[in-house]
Amino acid sequence: MNFQLTEEHLAVQEAAREFAQTELLPGVIERDEHQKFPAEQIKKMGELGFLGMMVDPKYGGGGMDTISYVLAMEEISKIDASASVVMSVNNSLVCWGIEKYGNEEQKQKYLTKLATGEIIGAFCLSEPEAGSDATSQRTTAEDKGDYYLLNGTKNWITNGSTASVYIVIAQTDVAKGHRGINALIVERGMEGFEIGPKENKLGIRGSDTHSLMFTDVKVPKENRIGEDGFGFKFAMSTLAGGRIGIASQALGIASGAYELAVKYSKERKAFGVEIAKHQAIQFKLADMATNIEAARLLCLQAAYDKDSHADYGKSGAMAKLFASKVAMDTTIEAVQVHGGYGFVKEYHVERLMRDAKITQIYEGTSEIQKIVISRELLK
Ligand code: CAA
Ligand code: FAD
């Protein structure tokens, strides 16, 4: 383990920080309030290479390592977690899934556009009655010879109305259980594919979360990723890396709130001194900084494991479990440090507190991360 950041790492971190400050910060409060998708900002992120960071340059990606990705995710998430979830889904679920398991035709047709941000992707596993219990897929992909007939509903899909390409997990052979599930690439606009209304959410309100309805959608066989029945393993394997992205998002939300709390505590005066001079505030900052440092090390450990081709299922789950709790705890305390000002939108910390919550829910709830970790420990 060597967490000495290289010049390339520092350059990526700086570029992400600069982009977040100049392009994401202006308007972030309004986008949250009006649930406005950061369309222009996402376009620029694509142009700067933030949407396909780890993809091989021959498919239009940045060819970077996972550590660079963690660093960039942290910086973007400090300012706008609605933008960083788009980045996380596109990089670590959609691009990674197609690059790792797709065939050459699929890579040429889809990955080259996804990696440059020309189009964005969505990953569709969850259903109204299958969230944590992901093997209980009700969406069906009936084998009709040269195509699959797709029927069912997916819930809570990030990039639901803005994506052009959707990786949809569906059951082909019920008798085979999770070994009868497939992963299909569905294109926006295919006949019988409908997008439900945007969810009105507590946090990450700029991201567009929708349910998707499929009625007799004909998906060509060549759009299946991997062998017949590989879909559930595809989803699990892809999510193992996705959790490093969400862990880094949680880390960024926490460190963004911490930086605001430090700044405010040096400005605000109470009882004749800056509140930073009160030990109660100092101790809050000390706890925040210690937890954030530990979360950062877990994120980097998981990224290092992935980059060095070690097993990263457990370290990614640990990073997500811990960093998402740190995000929640830190943002609550950051609001407290701000007093009443923390409760209004102009000071940003209330938004970060609302955004933090989702990191304990999506890409596997904290309880699911504990299942993943304990199974690894006990096997
Ligand atoms: N890689 C490859 N295969 C894996 C795997 C991995 N990391 N983890 C499990 N599998 C395989 C198993 O080997 C098993 O296959 P075999 O029987 O052939 O060996 C198969 O998957 C089923 O595994 P389990 O028996 O462990 O399945 P389970 O029903 O006990 O469930 C679970 C395991 C961990 C709880 C899983 O269902 C899970 O992760 N649930 C959470 C779902 C989730 O994270 N959803 C996120 C949706 S995407 C999202 O949220 C995006 C976003 O917000 C931005
Ligand atoms: P449930 O599975 O019903 O869980 C309810 C509670 O029970 C949770 O606390 C859970 O931890 C607990 N629980 C369940 N089973 C167990 C168990 N065995 N042991 C202990 N506790 C348990 N999904 C996608 O596929 N793609 C996306 O892009 C996507 N984006 C999302 C964006 C947002 C804003 C949201 C809210 C969700 C998104 N999701 C997405 C769905 C998300 O992954 C699920 O909400 C999550 O996996 C939990 O599933 P559920 O909501 O059905 O909760």
From TrEMBL:
It holds the Pfam family Acyl-CoA_dh_1. Residues 6-118 form the Acyl-CoA dehydrogenase/oxidase N-terminal domain. Residues 122-217 form the Acyl-CoA oxidase/dehydrogenase middle domain. Keywords: FAD, Flavoprotein, Oxidoreductase. Residues 231-377 form the Acyl-CoA dehydrogenase/oxidase C-terminal domain. Its cofactor is FAD. SUPFAM superfamilies: Acyl-CoA dehydrogenase C-terminal domain-like, Acyl-CoA dehydrogenase NM domain-like. PANTHER family: ACYL-COA DEHYDROGENASE (PTHR43884), ISOVALERYL-COA DEHYDROGENASE, MITOCHONDRIAL-RELATED (PTHR43884:SF12). Belongs to the acyl-CoA dehydrogenase family. This is Acyl-CoA dehydrogenase.
